[in-house]
Write a structure and sequence with these properties.
The protein is built from six helices and six strands. By secondary structure, it is of the alpha+beta class. Strand 3 and strand 4 form a beta hairpin. The longest helix is centred in the first third of the chain and has 14 residues. The chain is globular.
Length: 180
C-alpha cells in the first residue's frame, strides 16, 4: 500500500506547479481538508483530465478526511482522461439506492446496516461499499459503520473493514482483483 504522503505527492503532480505547491503546503500544515478542496478546484479550473482510478483514489482521500460529501459533486465534474486503462470506477451517484446489509453478506455485522456501493473494479466486478446505520429520520448516518468488499450476487465472499480502513479496503479491492 502507498503511504499517504506519497499519495498526496501523486495528487500534487496532477496540478500546475503553483497549485501543486499550495496543495502540498496544506499537507505540510495539517490542513488536508483545505488541500483536498484545492485539489478538486484546481483539477476543474485547469481542466485536468484524470483517470477513473485517480478519481476513486481522490474519493477515498476525501472520505478519510471527512470531505466526501462536499467534494463529490466537483469530483464528478472533473474531466475523464478516457484512456480506458482504469481498473477502478467511482460508482456512487446522488441517487444510488442503498442495499440492505443482509443482501451483500451473511455476516450479522451488516444485518441492520444499509450498504452504499461506492467503487467498482472494472476487471473482476468486485465492489467496495460503505455500510451505514439508518437514522430515525430516514437519512444514512454520516459516519461509516464498515467498509464492505463484495461481489454482487455472492454474499458468501464478503470482506468487512473497520471504519478507519478506507485505504486498506481500496488496497484489498485492487489485490483481490489481481488474485482472482
Amino acid at each position: 500500500m502507498i503511504d499517504e504522503a506519497t499519495q498526496w505527492r501523486r495528487f500534487a503532480a496532477l496540478l500546475p506547479p503553483a497549485d501543486a505547491a499550495g496543495f502540498m503546503d496544506c499537507w505540510a500544515i495539517g490542513e488536508q481538508e483545505a488541500g483536498l478542496d484545492q485539489l478538486v478546484a484546481g483539477l476543474l479550473q485547469h481542466q485536468v483530465p484524470i483517470s477513473e482510478t485517480v478519481r476513486a483514489e481522490i474519493a477515498v482521500a476525501a472520505e478519510v478526511w471527512g470531505m466526501r460529501t462536499a467534494l463529490a459533486p466537483g469530483l464528478g465534474r472533473c474531466l475523464g482522461d478516457h484512456q480506458g486503462d482504469s481498473t477502478l470506477r467511482l460508482i456512487e451517484q446522488a441517487d444510488t439506492v442503498p442495499l440492505p446489509g443482509s443482501s451483500v453478506a451473511t455476516d450479522t455485522a451488516l444485518a441492520d446496516l444499509l450498504v452504499v456501493p461506492w467503487i467498482a473494479c472494472t476487471r473482476c466486478g468486485r465492489v467496495l461499499a460503505r455500510a451505514h446505520n439508518q437514522e430515525p429520520w430516514g437519512d444514512l448516518s454520516y459516519l461509516v459503520g464498515h467498509y464492505v468488499l463484495f461481489v454482487p450476487g455472492r454474499s458468501t465472499s464478503t470482506v468487512l473493514f473497520a471504519p478507519d480502513s478506507a485505504w486498506d479496503a481500496l488496497a484489498e479491492l485492487r489485490m483481490s482483483c489481481l488474485q482472482a
